[in-house]
Amino acid sequence: MRQQLPILGLIALLMSTTPVYGDSFDAGLSALKRAHYATAMRAWIKMAKDGTAEAQNNVGHLHEEGFGVEQDYTEAMRWYRLAAEQGLAESQHNIAMLYYQGYGVKQNYREAVRWFKLSTKQELADSQYMLALCYHQGQGVSMDYKFAKYWYLMSAKQGYANAQFMYAFMLQAGEIGDPAPLKALVWSEVAKRNGKLDSSDVGDQSKLQLDDEEIATAMELAELCLSSNYESCPTA
Fold it and tell me: Among 129, 173, 165, which Cα is nearest to 150's?
């Protein structure tokens, strides 16, 4: 099973700053959404130079993706590190992804895991998923399905569709414990409703092992899982 990687670095939202900076920061987010990258850079660069971690992260993101500037992973890493030194989880994750993929630096799974672990301390769902993937594939750490399953679940409970899919896959495949097709179908359906459309690959396998009544029960449990904001979801 080939896990899906995040495509873009994480953008940070401004948590606390002066109202003037807040307006400028939000203007940058709006410009980024409209693909007005040069405007986004102008909105964030002064804040970044003044030490606002979220702006530093987002300037790094523009450099990483080549949005409005020449793509430059080294410059992206420089800005990410400035923000990460202030404890910004998104920047810690973005640094980890550069090491994981070997963009601008030598690929180093062990260093990637170190940064993923830092951001998981702040419960960042993206890093929880990536840490699970590292344990699942033995990248930078010893392969450990128990830890992989745990971190997929932590991320899944925050609504991260890729993690929901992979948790369903582990349940269906019986990785750690016996196969659990009904629970796998629940999480597959949850992932599907969150936009992971290929989750039906796992769900279809689960349905082959369930009767109609069990399938109906799984659909009800998926609805409960979503409506409870992941408080009432099956685990194993």
Answer: 129
CA distance 46 to 48: 5
Burial tier of 51 (Cβ tally within 10 Å: 0-12, 13-18, 19+): exposed
Structural domain containing residue 65? 1-143
CATH number at residue 4: 1.25.40.10
Burial of residue 65 (number of CB atoms within 10 Å: 0-12, 13-18, 19+)? middle
Is 214 among the domain residues? Answer: yes
Token reading at 28: 């940058």
| pTM exceeding 0.85 | yes
Lookup: tokens for 95? 């640094």
CB 57 within 8 A of CB 91: yes
Whether residue 114 sits in one domain with residue 37: yes
Residue 126: pLDDT over 80: yes
CA 121 to CA 12: how far, in whole Å?
17
What's the alpha-carbon Rg for the chain, to the nearest Å?
A: 20
Which pLDDT belongs to residue 198? 79
**What's the Cα-to-Cα distance from 86 to each of 57, 135, 209, 235, rounded to whole Å?**
11, 27, 50, 35
Q: Are residues 25 and 126 in the same domain?
A: yes
Residues 107 and 197 in one domain: no
For residue range 169-185, list pLDDT tens digits in order.
Answer: 999 999 988 999 999 99
What pLDDT is stored for residue 13 in this prediction?
A: 81
Which residue type does 81 have? Answer: R
